Amino acid sequence: MENAITVDKLYINYKYADKRSLTNALKFWKKDKDDKSFSAVKGISFSVQKGEILGVIGKNGSGKSTLLRAIAGIFSPDKGSIDLHGNSVSLLSIGVGFQKQMTGRENIFLSGLLLGFSEKQINEKIDEIIEFAELGDFINRPVKTYSSGMHSKLAFSITAILETDIILIDEVLSVGDARFKKKSFEKMKELILDSNRTVIIVSHSIETLKQLCDKVMWLHDGEIKMQGAPSEVLPVYEAFMT
After folding, report:
1. Whole-number Å distance between alpha carbons of 6 and 143
2. What's this model's pTM, rounded to 2 decimal places?
3. Nearest-angstrom CA–CA distance, 133 and 236
4. 3-class SS letters over 35-99
5. Which pLDDT tens digit goes with each residue over 72-97?
């Protein structure tokens, strides 16, 4: 099978930022052996085949969201490599990618352009995106006025309608009212039926990963603790967490 994503010996570190003067803050960005850092991702390697759905699970702080942001190109690795093999990628995550002063409609265009779509392509899809998001008049209001549920509806709608080769989903399927959760879950299953689309889903929902994923990877403290079929990994994870 052809790989869509290859991650090799990936390390991502965060530096601790304390309150300090501007002069010291500038010095902070210089590499200093005395600077303290936190290792969020610790030398992990894995691959995802084209058309595969990989679930990622783990306790809070295990490096799941950091990993997705690195694959999406938001974070740069400190060491190691990420190869997307020429595929386009979109990240569906609360709080990522929207300009809060801009309206929902304006953010659709901005998000689409950042994903590599032309203005013509976005115009062809914008009515469908707006209809799916169910935001009513709020589509013409600044995103800063949105609730987290409204934010997730718009983010999901953009990613679901403007389809990229690789979709990265960070907990968004669990946000919003019950009816929209069901609607977005059904839409995600529809997208997954496309054998050319590759998906990585980060979720705490055992049931979601059971239903949607071909494989599950368990991250623990920045390292891969286990990976394999959902039926193999999830029971071990549940036992570990209880």
Report:
1. 34
2. 0.80
3. 37
4. CCEEEEEEEEEEEEECCCEEEEECCCCCCHHHHHHHHCCCCCCCEEEEECCCCCEEEEECCCCCC
5. 988 899 999 999 999 999 887 765 66
